[in-house]
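Please decode residue identities from the backbone states below.
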């Protein structure tokens, strides 16, 4: 056990830990972006609010969520430690041309990019995760008749837990906390949207470099899969995922009332 922790605390061990936690978080942002696409449905927030209930009540998802929180902390702490150790190991900066030629801009600024993202996560969870779990949010009532006609109304009172039932006429009623409205309200703030977009810019560079460097740590990037890894990093993680996240605040700020 002592040898395991000695290896984990070594330079190689910490790089492997960084790579493993980073790939786990890459998977998380991919799933998170896909789920949040429910925000674009014109259904009064029903799909997104139901998705939120699933993500916060399903036992397996809850375990994965807490694992994800721990992974974020571990990834951030380990990243700060590696950045600090690298800084101490190189007290004299390289010449600008040599540095630029030997490494990418993202690799030289992963600490700054990661710090921006950590700040974003803290603010983001404070705005939405904390409010959803610990505050009395307004709730919405979604009623669907047997013919498929849907009615959306406000719920009066405090909702302790989601409700789902059918009445004697066959009408289906779903009552859930209205996190959709909280998201829409937050994304009406230009300053918040501006910070969100800056964070997605940082996410783009952080994911692109992190995804590819993880496979380099594993000794895979230089193999026959290097083109595929570079393509996934530059297209999926550098462009598609940040663009999906960025489109959400832009949509609410510019295209909704």
């Amino acid at each position: 056990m002592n040898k395991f922790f000695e290896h984990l605390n070594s330079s190689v061990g910490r790089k492997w830990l960084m790579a493993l936690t980073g790939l786990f978080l890459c998977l998380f942002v991919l799933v998170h972006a896909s789920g949040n696409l429910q925000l674009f449905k014109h259904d009064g927030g029903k799909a997104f609010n139901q998705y939120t209930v699933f993500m916060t009540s399903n036992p397996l998802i809850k375990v994965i969520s807490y694992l994800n929180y721990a992974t974020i902390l571990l990834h951030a702490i380990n990243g700060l430690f590696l950045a600090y150790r690298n800084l101490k190991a190189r007290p004299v900066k390289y010449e600008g041309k040599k540095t630029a030629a030997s490494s990418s801009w993202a690799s030289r600024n992963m600490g700054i990019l990661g710090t921006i993202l950590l700040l974003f996560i803290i603010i983001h969870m404070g705005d939405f995760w904390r409010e959803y779990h610990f505050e009395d949010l307004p709730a919405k009532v979604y009623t669907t008749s047997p013919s498929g006609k849907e009615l959306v109304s406000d719920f009066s009172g405090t909702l302790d837990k989601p409700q789902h039932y059918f009445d004697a006429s066959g009408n289906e009623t779903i009552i859930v906390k209205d996190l959709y409205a909280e998201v829409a309200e937050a994304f009406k703030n230009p300053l918040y949207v501006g910070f969100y977009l800056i964070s997605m810019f940082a996410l783009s560079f952080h994911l692109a470099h992190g995804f590819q460097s993880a496979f380099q740590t594993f000794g895979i990037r230089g193999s026959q899969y290097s083109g595929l890894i570079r393509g996934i990093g530059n297209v999926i993680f550098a462009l598609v995922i940040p663009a999906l996240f960025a489109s959400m605040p832009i949509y609410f700020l510019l295209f909704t009332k």
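Observation: The chain has a mean pLDDT of 90.
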